[in-house]
Write a structure and sequence with these properties.
Blueprint (H helix, E strand, L loop, with lengths): L5 H12 L2 H29 L8 H9 L4 H25 L13 H29 L6 H12 L3 H27 L12 H31 L7 H11 L3 H25 L3
Helix pairs in contact: 1-4, 2-3, 2-4, 2-10, 3-4, 3-5, 4-5, 7-8, 8-9, 8-10, 9-10
Length: 276
Amino acid sequence: MRKFGAGGVVRAADDATGNAWFEVAARAGHVTSGIVHILIAYVIVRIAVGAGGNADQSGALSAVASTTGGTVALWAAAAAFVAMAFWRVAEAIVGVHATEPNGPDDKGASGLADRGKALSLAVIYFAFAWTAVRFALGDGTSSSKENAGLSARLMGSGAGKLALVVVGVVVFCVGCYHVYKGISGNFMDDLSIADNAAVRTTGVIGYVAKGVVLAIAGILVGVAVVRADPSKATGIDGAVKALGSAPAGQILLFVAAIGVATYGVYAFVMARYARM
């Protein structure tokens, strides 16, 4: 049997990023992500008007599961998420810009940071795929309940509390990075088209809105640890409902829904024009 060392892994990843069909499947992941964010925005509107729901990927996928042909759509979504996850894994191995003829150098601190972000996104997309599979099999549960349950178990030990604090800090920093990326317009570097007002506006609104929600979710994890209240650590759904309980909460929820939906629209732009 031929040995498959580190060099072989890099070559295999490089071959994958050069495969046209794999790229099409990965771009489908952006489409699916866009649909999920628009569905989350719909759930946020329902929460704003008092109809309830879970404003996260489980709530979005649950809405898909309840429709005619929902199971087929969920399997398709899972496949698209897996393709996107493997694409990010390949980027983490060979470099985010490896397939660009005149792309930035993937060596040094900047390249290492890009690889780290690609690997983090791979984990997120694998998690999305797993959630979609569970709903397709009829075994889907609320992400907020799962997060609260896991938090309760971790709070039973000092190491678990430390892990939660680390998670909260990471999620908060990711949220801040999204806000920075939106305000700075750096997201345009991810696209293969020239700068234009419509795309830039969509990206700014989408990234800032998602960043704010993620930052709140990270803060709530810290609050959950301090208060020993696992119910606070419920992810994006908890962050959205925290917005709703604030002064002028209904208005904030409508604004959040517009922002998250706009991020979904930007995901469609990524599906067409993302550098791959």
